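Technical note accompanying the year-one report. For the benefit of new consortium partners, we illustrate the data format agreed upon in the data management plan: each record pairs a sequence with a structure-token string. No post-processing was applied to the example shown here.
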Amino acid sequence: MMWNYFLPAVYSMIPLFLITALGFFLVRLKKIGPAFIRSLSYFLINVALPCWLFTKLIRTGRENLFSSLLFPGAAFFIIALGFLLGIITFFLWRVRDKQRAAGWAMAGLGNSGYLPLAISSSLPMALPAIAPFLPEETAALYIGMYLVIMNPLLWTFGNYLVAGDLGKPRFGDLLTPPAISVLVGVLVVLLDGSRFWNDTFSPFYYLINTLETLGAMTLPTVLICLGGSIGQTSLEGFKSGGKQLRFTAAVMTVRLLLMPGFFFLLYAVFRRFFDLQPVQYWVLFLEMVTPPATNLAVMAIRAEKNEGLVAETLLFSYLGYFLLFPFYLALFLSLPLFH
């Protein structure tokens, strides 16, 4: 049964891989530079992604708001699990020097926004029969609620682990534009704001259309920034040696093997006790099967600490992710959620 979904899973990943590779090679060939990636990332974080999240959330129903409360708690659990597995794995791989704190951050903090949002948008095109079970608007709501917890932890605790004293948290890191857009979107749904923009004679109708147009730029921008960020960090160069290899191997073991394994284990153990919707399992799956957050590289470069280690680990983690994810996706789609 699993192999029936393998080719569609591969096909759903091809556009994501190609656009990410485009960003990577444009940077490596020096057709675009770090300044362009920073500007594009600024546009993404402060304009396109908030517009995309907001316009997706306001299309969802009030009934989904209650079920979305699962995801802030899930974020704490999944991040804590990643950190715990990271601590154990780094001990077993004998990475015991000061660099291990950055490794714990990479093991615990995954790419919880860019990749889940991109995949939740692309999969229904490759598998139309699955689309009714995994509505994009509901998935966006759940991912957004996850990010309300994930982003502050990434830019405070994660930044501190990677950058040390240079990574002390700032108030502005606690409430990012995507998180604000999620909270405002939830408020609009609670207040039944749809009555204001469903009327073509209302100015709000055209305002929402404008925001949707800006939000439509999110998917390609996300992937180009992702590829560009990996290409940019890999230009820092890698340092060969046993410690570096063990560091990278430990992070990849947690993010690409143990975390996916724990998702399927937890599903097998707890599915009889929790009556979750397929789309809830879908978002939990996406959040547990993801490589490290690329923003950790930004923190390392800014602090001038662990740049080579983080760059090497990101590059090989994302290569491994694109190879392994179709297998995990095919296995997920073969679960009895859709049959």
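Partners are asked to follow this layout when depositing records. DSSP finds 15 helices and no strands in the chain.
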